[in-house]
Amino acid sequence: MSATRSRANPGGMDVLHALGGNVRPLRERKPPWFKVPPPGGTRYRELTEMIRAENLHTVCQEAACPNVGECWERGTATFMILGDTCTRRCGFCNVKTGKPTWNDPLEPARVARSIARMGLRHAVITSVDRDDLPDKGASAFVGVIRQVRRQAPGCQVEVLTPDFQGQEMPLAKVIAERPDVFNHNVEVVPRLYPIARRGSQFARSCRVLRLARELGEGEVVTKSGLMVGLGETHDELVDTFAALREHGVQVLTVGQYLRPSERHLPVVRYWHPDEFAALERAAYELGFQHVAAGPLVRSSYHADQHVPQARPGVGPLAASG
Fold it and tell me: Which of 12, 17, 95, 170 sits CB 3.0–4.6 Å from 3 for a disulfide?
C-alpha cells in the first residue's frame, strides 16, 4: 500500500513523531472499565438474521462497535447505507476503503422495512463517504427518511452524514426532509485533523453543522461527536466543544478511541471515567442540551435518549432502564 494511503502513517508522516513515542501497544490488557459482555442474546441473533436477510450493512458491525451487544439487545441499530466501502481513509476507522460500486435504488425501502419490523422508536442512518457521487450520497439519505416516514411513522430518524465535501445543495436536500436529528461528527480536535482525518477539515465540518441548524429552522436537532485517546488535552477538547456550540450544536458525544488493528493509528492513552465526567460537566457548562461522555460512548450509543421520545423503547434492556 502507498504510504500516502496508509491509515497508520497518513501521507507518509511519522505518526509517532506527531503523537509522541509513548503510545499504547495494540495487544495489551485494557483498563477494567472496558469490559462488556460479548454479544449473543436472543434479540441480537434475531436482528443479525434480519439484517443479513435484507442484505443491509450496520455501522455496529462494520466499525466493530464495542456496544453492539447492548444496543441490539435494546432493539436499536444504526444502519449504514450506500455500501460498505468508503472513499476516504481516516486513520481511526475500521470501515474498508476503496472504489465503491454499491448502487441499490431499493435500499431505502429495505432499510425502512427492517426498521418497521424491528419496531424501533429511533433509527440512526449513516453512510460511508461517497465523494464519487455527484450529490455525495444525499439522495440516499432523502430516500431513507421518506421511506421510514411512510413505513414506520412512529419512528424518529437521526441521520449521521459525511460532510458532503462542504457543498450546500446536498445538505439542503437532506435537511429539507426534516430528520429529527442531524448528526455530523468532527471526530477529533482540530490539531489532529492532518493525522486522523486526511481529506476532511474541521472548519468545513463546523460550517456543515451551522448550516444544518439554520436550514432546520429550529425543527432539527444538531449533534456531533469526538473521540479521545490520540494525545489531545482536556483544554483542547473544551475549546473544540466551544467551537461546536458557536456553530449551534445541541447534542454532544465523547468516547474513547480503540485501535482496530496494527494498520490504524495507535492509542496514546486511555482516559479514565472521571476525566470523561469532567468533560461532560464542562460541555454542559457551555450550554449543550444533552451530553454523553464515557469510555464506551459512541455517536449512536443510546441515541434514543438524546432527544425526547413519544413512546418507550423495545427489548429487555430498554424496559429495564
Answer: 12
Q: What is the DSSP letter of 220?
A: S
Yes or no: say if 18 and 232 are a contact pair by the CB < 8 Å rule: no
- The secondary structure of residue 132, as a DSSP letter, is T
With vertex at residue 172, the alpha carbon angle to CA 114 and CA 62, rounded to the nearest 5 degrees, is 40
What is the average pLDDT across 5-19? 60
DSSP for 8-35, please give it. Answer: SSGGG--HHHHH-S----SSSPPPGGG-
- 300/321 Cα distance (integer angstroms): 17
Element (H, E) at 146: helix 138-151
Contact of 126 with 234, CB cutoff 8 Å: no
Q: What's the number of CA atoms in the CB half-sphere (13 Å) around residue 287?
A: 8
- Residue 248: CA count within 13 A, CB half-sphere: 21
